[in-house]
Amino acid sequence: MSFRNRLREEISYKGFTIKELSAKVGVSNSTFLSYVDARGVLPNVETAVKIAKALGVSVEYLVTGENSNKNVNIQENRDKKEILHIIEKFEDNKIKAVKTIVNAIAEM
Known about the structure:
2 domains, elongated, 108 residues, 7 helices
């Protein structure tokens, strides 16, 4: 997967629009679009750092797909965050039920 594809994936996952993220990073919409469209332009280092920071990922991850500094599996973290996001919407009685189910699965 390329920088462009990982960037698109992170933007989608985090729920940003190009307009929001370009403003947060401090570049024009058209410049930011050049990073994610078919042109696949790579940002300069300073901008790449700002993009990574805004998305909550490392520059290394955006460039290589790996994050050796933290030795973290990005997809695994995403899955955990997604599960937590879903559970946050539950009422207390449903949270207790989920906890019971998860504990039962963990003991298998």
